[in-house]
Amino acid sequence: MTHARVVGTGSYLPSGLLTNADLEKLVDTTDQWIVERTGIRERHVAAQGELTSDLAAHAARRALDAAGVVPASVDLIVVATTTPDRVFPGTACIVQAKLGIANACAAFDIQAVCSGFIYALATATNFIKARQARTALVIGAETLTRITDYGDRGNCILWGDGAGAVVLAASDAPGVISTHLHADGRYEALLYTDGGPSSGSPDAGPKVRMQGNAVFKMAVNTLDAIVDETLAANGLAKTDVDWLVPHQANIRIIQATAKKLGMGMERVVLTVDRHGNTSAASIPLALDTAVRDGRIRPGQTLLMEAFGGGFTWGSALVRY
Ligand code: COA
């Protein structure tokens, strides 16, 4: 049987910073409130003219370097993003060109908001298992600050920009062990953007709208359930998981999932304090951080999970 293994990770954060002190000047909030309710202290912000595809290409190059894979060997590119450069072409095609990949490999975007990376990882894994690809670039990249309303203190404190990428390669040994994807479109009204190409956008462009409290409760309950689903599907005990690599939305949501797993926070990869919520980029950003600083080591078992607009949610159990 062919498996899909993570053979390289990379990430990229734009150099601009937006701190809680900066937000105190924009809306009626305080550093203390933001830290207590979200765990976030600062986020990165893309420079003017720096696009989602630029962030994605930087992260992808780093992942390819780490994997020792030349761009020409890539035969599938999947980019998870909610903030594409344009309506079309797909950001994955733009990234393909920026990486100089001229082998006509498949390249497409996935839109599952904050669960986008898990959806993209599942998709690429299934391409490899079906032997329709051997070397895939899976990227989560966002410029969320471009769709943030900095007049809405209820959610502008959350979002940040960044990108993370993994190289997945066909292998005889397991890598991505299982993926679990879900969605429930009935919750659109709790988390959405006001407008888009089909419904018409306000002059300032679509912005994120959210009922934070309701989203929070749904996220905790749903992630609780997907932890059970993932462990049961693989006949694993909680103690079999070495690292939780969660979507970085809010430290309190992450703490609730860690508690569910009976894990101390020392086994949870946390970047939310420095990155904020980078939507589809947050899991590969966290993964790359912990791979590069040596915490995540070959052979360890990782549980990745995410929840986001749609609602969408999902998990991946990965032998690194
Ligand atoms: N600074 C200070 N006060 C704020 C504030 C801010 N930035 N944002 C909201 N408040 C106020 C509210 O106006 C409200 O005041 P009131 O009681 O006088 O009406 C009070 O704080 C509580 O609001 P509430 O929305 O219940 O706060 P909360 O504890 O739920 O925290 C979030 C708000 C957004 C931090 C939290 O709901 C959250 O993180 N939700 C999940 C969001 C998420 O992860 N979304 C992405 C999913 S991928």
Q: Strand order, main sheet: write it out.
A: 1-7-6-4-5
CATH topology of the largest domain: Peroxisomal Thiolase, Chain A, domain 1
- Molecules bound to protein: coenzyme A
Q: How is the biggest beta sheet arranged? A: 5 strands, mixed
State the CATH architecture of the largest domain.
3-Layer(aba) Sandwich
**The CATH homology group name of the largest domain:** Thiolase/Chalcone synthase
How many extended strands?
Answer: 13
Name the helicity range.
25-40%
CATH class bucket of the largest domain: Alpha Beta
Radius of gyration: 18 Å
Strand content: 25-35%
Cα distance, first to last residue?
A: 18 Å
Global structural class:
alpha/beta
How would the global form be characterised? globular
Name the poorly predicted regions.
none
Describe this structure as you would to a colleague.
- By secondary structure, the chain is of the alpha/beta class.
- It has 2 domains: 3-172, Thiolase/Chalcone synthase (Peroxisomal Thiolase, Chain A, domain 1, 3-Layer(aba) Sandwich), CATH 3.40.47.10; 177-319, 3-Layer(aba) Sandwich (Peroxisomal Thiolase, Chain A, domain 1), CATH 3.40.47.
- It has helices at 20-26, 31-38, 52-67, 91-98, 116-129, 212-233, 251-260, 272-275, 282-292; strands spanning 3-12, 16-19, 42-45, 76-80, 106-110, 135-143, 161-171, 176-183, 191-193, 208-210, 243-246, 301-308, 312-319.
- It has a 5-stranded mixed beta sheet with strand order 1-7-6-4-5, sandwiched between helices. It has a 4-stranded mixed beta sheet with strand order 8-13-12-11, sandwiched between helices.
- β12 and β13 form a beta hairpin.
- The chain is globular and about 55 Å long.
- The two termini are 18 Å apart.
- Bound molecules: coenzyme A (COA).
- Coenzyme A is lined by residues 29, 33, 37-38, 114, 153-155, 157, 210, 212-213, 215-216, 219, 249-250, 277, 307-308.
